[in-house]
Amino acid sequence: MSGSVQVTQQLQQHQLQHQHQHQQHESSCYLSSKSSVKQHSFSTYKTSSRRQKTTVKTEKRQAVVKLSPLPARAKRTYLAMDTDKEVIGYVIPVFRANHEDVRGLMEAREEEVTEEGIHYVAMRNLFVREAREAVDVKVETKTRSTHIRESAERMELSKTMEEWAEFRKKMNPDSLTHRPEFIVKPRGQTVWEGGAVRLHCTVAGWPKPRIAWYKNNVLIDAKAHPEKYAIESSFNMHSLEIKNCDFMDTAQYHASALNVKGEASSVATIVVKRFQEGEEAGPLDPKPHGFCAEHGVTFETTIIDKFEVAFGREGETLSLGCTVIIYPTVKKYQPEVVWSRNSVPLKPSKWVHTHWSGQRATLTLVHLNKEDEGMYTLRVNTKSGFDTYSAYVYVRDADVEVEGVPVAPLDVRCHDANKDYVVVTWKQPAVEGSSSILGYFIDRCEVGTHHWAQCNDAPVKYARFPVTGLVEGRSYVFRVRATNKEGVSRPSRVSDAVVAMDPSDRARLRAGPSAPWTGMIKFTEEDPTVGVVPGEPSDVVVTEATKSYVVLAWKPPVQRGHEGVMYYIEKCISGTETWQRVNSGMPVKSPRFALFDLAEGKSYSFRVRCCNSSGVGEASVSTGEITVGDKLDLPSSPGNPVATRNTDTSVVVFWGACKDVKYLVGYYVEYSEVGTDVWIPCNNKPVKQTRFVCHGLTTGSNCVFRVKAVNAAGYSQSSSSSEAVVVKAAISVPGRATGVTVLEAVKDTMMLTWTEPASKGGADVRGYFVDYRTVKGHVVGKWHEMNLKALTTTSYKAENLKENVFYQFQVRAMNMAGVSEASLPTSALECKEWTITVAGPPVGLHVLEVRDTSAVVLWERPAFDGRTPVNGYYLDIKEASAGEKGWKAAHEKANKTKYMKVTGLKPGASYDFRVRAQNLAGVGKPSAVLGPILVQTRPGTNEIHVDVDDDGVISMIFECAEMKEGSEFVWSKNYQTVTDTSRLTLVTERGRSRAIFNSPSLEDLGTFSCVVTNTDGFSSSYTLTEEDLKRLLDISHDHKFPVIPFKNEMAIELLEKGRVRFWTQVEKCTSACQVDYVFNDVIITEEEKYTVNFDKSTGIIEMFMDSLEVSDEGTFTFDLVDGKAKGATSLVLIGDEFRELQKKSEFERAEWVRKQGPHFVEYLDFTVTPECNVLLKCKIGNVRAETEITWSKDNIEIAEDDEDAQKIERKDGDLTFNIGKWVIKQEKPKGKEGKKPSAEDVPPPPRPKISKADAGTYQVLLRDDRGKDKSTFNLTDAGYQAVMNELFRVIANSSCDIKVISTEHGIILYSMITYYNEELRVGWLHKDAKIAASERVKSGVTGEQLWLKINEPTEKDKGKYTMDIFDGKDGVKRVFDLTGKAWEEAFEEFQRLKAAAIAERNRARVVGGLPDVVAIQEGKSLNLTGNVWGEPAPEVSWTKNDRELVCDERYQLKFEHGKFASITIAAVTTADSGKYALLVKNKYGTEAGEFTVSVYNPDDEENKEGKKG
């Protein structure tokens, strides 16, 4: 912006100088000179585009001349004229538009065009002219010197302006940039040899495109061949002149235009005619075009291993590659390999990796996104020309995390970046999800961080959003997310990084300052605006207006100083005079601002104020009233799409372009299979063309297509659906026939044969046409048709020829698409009689029914039988890779038929076949080779299967899913087309054909085959043998006279209330099926006694009876009739079976009656819990609050205050009686009435879980006004024993594995149980023998521990020990193997404990006799004796205060009998007081018996008491 301001200031200062010059000199008028024209062009740069009425004024401001504006329809002239109307120059208009065009360019931009900024509007206005714009002309009087000086200043200023404009145009191309476009295309021409021809074209584009000319894809180097070519370019008009044309100049010429936005080309054909046949070029003639003089060769480029149409998914990595062969190979020379997408060259980046190995070119797309979808082109440039290959890459959306949410938007870009502002645009995705897109969220992230911040609180509908609040100098990336009712999509691919800075600073950083023109002297002055309040901004306009936001833009003020300015924006609601400041808290730095939260439909006015450190300037001119709302409408619906077949997996879709649409982003194409309502996008990136090839479709599917357009405002309505089209390859004319040969010649007749075309064009060949011409020496005649009606065979008998004349023949094939090109003509063949005796070669070889290991080869009779008729054929076979020596016969004896099935082939191998015919004269020459034939079952191949329908009709069915337009089913018997309809009836429905046997018999035996025409050989066969025929006839009989099948025979079932249900079920039946219910041969009608039901949907037949009486004994039958099918099922109910069922019925009825009142759901029974509690339990139902529940034992009711009443519990419908429950009798303790004992005071249970005392008969009685029920359990004898056995079982199973523990006496084996009952039998076995009780080995129970004690174990006690616990049946065994490590550890521990016990028993110890304290009067004698023990006898010593005493006169120490140790102290004194100890010691240990001796003096005690008193 600084450059623009400087130029504006210079222009203003220049005008002020003119106004203050008042010297009286002669007038000088300079009108319409080249400089003045240029001056006026730049003067309009700073003026508004409004129409003004122009007046010519003198220096005294008097009107001299008044010029009217140009008439409304006057044609604008581009001629520059002087005052005398003389033409002095020509003005070239660069750009012309009206207000609407300019406003449209400012509001939106075309695809892949850089967004123009507001600072470029002034530059563009340089080229904008209105149709009726006037020019201000001023006439002033000046001196000659002043005139010269001003002229020099104008020239210097014009030069500066031109340099500045060029710099801005190069560094910041505005939205006028676009890819090349041919305005005038070159036209094809025809020229005579020796003449010259010129091709012209006009190309538009910005930046200015480069033009190159190609001949048959080879670059034309005019400098290398100036004598041949001349290329000119001027004012976007380009031409190619070809001089001295010769026949070699006949070619296609391409004009290619290329700039940074893309490439465009146009082609024209030049045909050079000759007056007569000329000679071929000699070796000294000029080299053909494309010859590289540098290397002396002409490079030929071949691209093989081409990449096909590719499909990727977002997030995946996709590689494309081709092998490029350059011939000849020149050392150290490599071609230039260029990859492009949609004609835009690709540059390596983190998303795009390219590699050239010298032979293979590879393009890798890392982490695919929808932006990567498009047409990819590989271009190989050599010094002899170029070659290209293209294929489309489709990128499917990644799977959404939440069902129904939209997919990610695409193509996020940043435009018009400023100090704190940027415009973010994107494209809408193809899939909106389960509901329409409500809007988009824009996220930003500062480069170098990983924190994403959401820019908008509410979703925006418009695919364009201004982001404000950026920090100047920092770089940002952006992403967009779509949202609908189901949720938010994944984010798009991030945009390229953009720096928040002034555009002029960005331009200087990229290219640096432009070199100034130094031819003129510049006069500069100091800027007096430092410290001055800035002036008002100018040209405040609304550049974008939607219902979500409005964007303002303006020009900075001229007067602003060096410190820079910031801006405040103010708004005023229409109809008021109150201006509100929008950004009072934070002024903005950029000359643009986005306003949000405006009321849709209301009108506002806006203005801007500048501010700096000196203050806030005056407000700008108001914008006028602006109504808030979308200025861009949704696109209209595209025209009706038309879908046409292309390949087996693609369809070409055409549609009409949208009408009156602005700023179209592109179109999305969707398809849906007929019969479904699921629409799938064909492209995930919008395309601008009205033609698109939809790949990736399913072959044979029937699809419809629709199209919707999209622009920044959103999606259009989808077009109407196209007509349904089947996805199949389009039909084309067949290829050329090959191998045209003569089999026989007889005077004026020649027999011709040929091989059918390798490519049939997607449809069967319907016939052939034969052409001929005569040959005389080197002169050939014209071609003539031999047959007007197409031939259906690959042979033809040419008649009415001239004998001894040479002829050439050619053949053309025909299908429904047209006639093919002619085959290569035969050599000149003489028509004369041959002398041949053997048969000619068979013709028409073809294969059917190719499978993995077999194929059927068929052929036709030779066109010439020889002297005798053909009587057989021989089939030869060889692998395709083998040489001529690899041929071998497929069979030994001659084959009489014209077909043969070859078996035993190798899967996946290729074979060649040929056939030889035989007659009486011998075997003739082999036929033309058929092959190679790949032996492999084609995917989708079906076999003929035989079916017998419900009516007994036998038929053969063949299905084919690869049917194409015009395809037909052709049935044959023994490979002869079926024409006799008396035996077979053929019915075809779409992809299914059925051959019905009218009257199957032995006449129908044979091989039946079916071929589908217009396919790649889909065929199959079925051989009907006599055995198969008999089997099919049996099945047919069963179907003609059917029997209704039953899933099960009639069964009987008892229901509630004793009702009886007779039922059965048939496997299938129709709605017309009828049932008769029969009892003893009498049909039963529905009445009170019988209820019948037939559910035809399930096939269940039922008959109900409320009860069985004596008269109901007999046979019950269900008779069924369903059309012609019949069935019956019976049940005989007599004798004991009937009476037993009758009893059960009565019992069930009684049970139902019982259950109407309180009753037992489960009768009284017992159970033993894991804790060994014995419970009597029952389950009751239909109980009310008033129902009485009474327990009794031995017919004695258990009252509530009885001890047993506390054993009864009820939980919901379950009643339990805990027999072994311990009941505490609550007695009132004395002195503590009313206080219950604590849990610690409760003694242990005084009784076992169950005992004989619990035996008896227990009964529970339920009773209320509805009835009563009772249940009894006999806990005596067998009942008691059953309970005990169950208790024993629980106890036995609760036992743990046997464990071992050692003691000083021996080894103990034990097992823990939950509870022990004294009636439980436990036995121990050692080595499977019962252990007898003895003093050394004992068994017993302690608490819940079962043990076996082995005292003083020996080696004999090793072995397997088994504990057998009686569980009421066989017993539970626990085994422990007391051997090995277990024995060693147990025995070692026993010995250790035994030794420790012996030591403890024999250890020396003081066993008694010594007091703890001895108080004795001084002078007395002390005698103490201590009893000691030890084995052996211990050593004895005495200590006083830890010092050993020695026997002397004072201390007498004695130890008698090894048991008594004594100490005697005669006449003790106070010195004898202290701590004494008797120490005893032997080899097992030491012990000390301590005591204290206290000696006192009576006198001292009395004195102490006297002193206290």
Number of continuous helical runs: 11
SS class: mainly beta
Strand content: 35-45%
N-to-C span: 120 Å
Q: What characterizes the major β-sheet? A: 6 strands, antiparallel
Low-confidence residue ranges: 1-138, 277-286, 511-527, 1228-1234
> What general outline do the C-alpha atoms trace?
extended
Helix content class: 10-25%
What number is the mean pLDDT?
81
Task: Give the number of DSSP strands.
Answer: 104
Radius of gyration: 58 Å
Descriptive report:
- Mean pLDDT is 81; it is low at 1-138, 277-286, 511-527 and 1228-1234.
- This protein is mainly beta.
- Helix content is 11%, strand content 41%.
- The chain starts with a helix and ends with a helix.
- Helix 1 packs antiparallel against helix 5 (144-171) and helix 2 (34-46) packs across helix 5 (144-171).
- The protein is built from eleven helices and 104 strands.
- The longest helix has 28 residues, at 144-171.
Protein traits:
1509 residues; 6-stranded antiparallel sheet; 5-stranded mixed sheet; 11 helices; 104 strands; 41% strand; extended; disordered N terminus
SSE topology sketch:
Elements: H1 2-19, H2 34-46, E1 55-57, E2 63-66, E3 79-81, E4 87-90, H3 99-107, H4 121-125, H5 144-171, E5 178-184, E6 189-192, E7 197-206, E8 210-215, E9 218-219, E10 229-234, E11 237-242, E12 251-259, E13 262-273, E14 300-304, E15 310-313, E16 318-327, E17 336-341, E18 344-345, E19 352-356, E20 360-365, E21 374-382, E22 385-396, E23 410-415, E24 421-427, E25 439-446, E26 452-454, E27 464-468, E28 475-484, E29 487-488, E30 498-499, H6 503-511, E31 538-545, E32 549-555, E33 566-573, E34 580-581, E35 592-596, E36 603-612, E37 615-619, E38 626-627, E39 642-647, E40 650-654, E41 664-673, E42 680-681, E43 691-694, E44 702-711, E45 714-715, E46 725-726, E47 738-746, E48 749-755, E49 767-776, E50 779-780, E51 784-785, E52 795-798, E53 806-815, E54 818-819, E55 829-830, E56 843-848, E57 855-860, E58 872-879, E59 888-889, E60 899-902, E61 910-919, E62 922-926, E63 930-934, E64 945-948, E65 954-959, E66 969-973, E67 976-977, E68 984-989, E69 992-997, E70 1006-1012, E71 1019-1024, H7 1026-1040, E72 1046-1054, E73 1060-1066, ...
Parallel strand pairs: 6-13, 15-22, 97-104
Antiparallel strand pairs: 1-2, 3-4, 5-7, 7-11, 8-9, 8-12, 10-11, 12-13, 14-16, 16-20, 17-18, 17-21, 19-20, 21-22, 23-24, 24-27, 25-26, 25-28, 28-29, 28-30, 31-32, 32-35, 33-34, 33-36, 36-37, 36-38, 39-40, 40-43, 41-42, 41-44, 44-45, 44-46, 47-48, 48-52, 49-50, 49-51, 49-53, 53-54, 53-55, 56-57, ...
Helix pairs in contact: 1-5, 2-5
